[in-house]
Prior knowledge:
Blueprint: H1 2-14, E1 30-36, H2 42-58, E2 64-69, E3 76-82, H3 88-105, E4 109-115, E5 119-124, H4 142-158
Antiparallel strand pairs: 1-4, 2-3, 3-5, 4-5
The structure holds 2-acetamido-2-deoxy-beta-D-glucopyranose (3 copies).
One 2-acetamido-2-deoxy-beta-D-glucopyranose binds at residues 71-72.
Amino acid sequence: MATQFLVVAFVVLFSASSRRADTLNNTPLRSSCSGNYSTGNSIIRANIDTLFSSLNSRSPFSNFYNITAGNGTDTVYGLYMCEGDLSSDDCRSCIGAATSDILEQCPSSRQGIIWYDYCHLRFADQNFFGIMDSRGFPMINPSLRSTIRSCLSRFYLDL
Ligand SMILES: *[C@@H]1O[C@H](CO)[C@@H](O)[C@H](O)[C@H]1NC(C)=O
Ligand SMILES: *[C@@H]1O[C@H](CO)[C@@H](O)[C@H](O)[C@H]1NC(C)=O
Ligand SMILES: *[C@@H]1O[C@H](CO)[C@@H](O)[C@H](O)[C@H]1NC(C)=O
């Protein structure tokens, strides 16, 4: 709780400072998966693949997109969001990482969400469009993250 408060305080304090990292780090910050489909269910998997391929082909042109794939009970819903001022190249590469990492982290999941510094992607077998997701977590200003990281590593080295 205290840590979360500190993080929020830092974000508020530093959000005005320059936030673009020198090179974008497409390492997932966090992911969350739920509900497995049976490994024999090739339809939902095919729909997820179609969904991700649509999201990937859209990402160079838009920083936000939502779409569905499939029909009936196997319909899957997906969306991504890139930070508003992310370049189209960086959005494309972030979503490219997201669609591949989420399949690694959430294999055979009916629902999954993955967060990065500059984008996030979510899919589900239920319609969540326009529904507020309360499972957020505190995001740290990326330029600040490296500062915290180097402070922490110095701290651990000193131990
Ligand atoms: C889903 O599958 C993964 C790995 O196959 C397993 O670790 C996990 O416990 C399963 N979750 C549910 C809710 O069945
Ligand atoms: C995207 O989401 C909105 C609701 O927020 C919905 O009205 C729209 O149909 C969705 N677009 C697609 C392609 O599913
Ligand atoms: C669902 O999609 C499949 C493949 O795209 C198609 O063959 C089928 O006719 C569709 N079913 C309905 C009810 O639209």
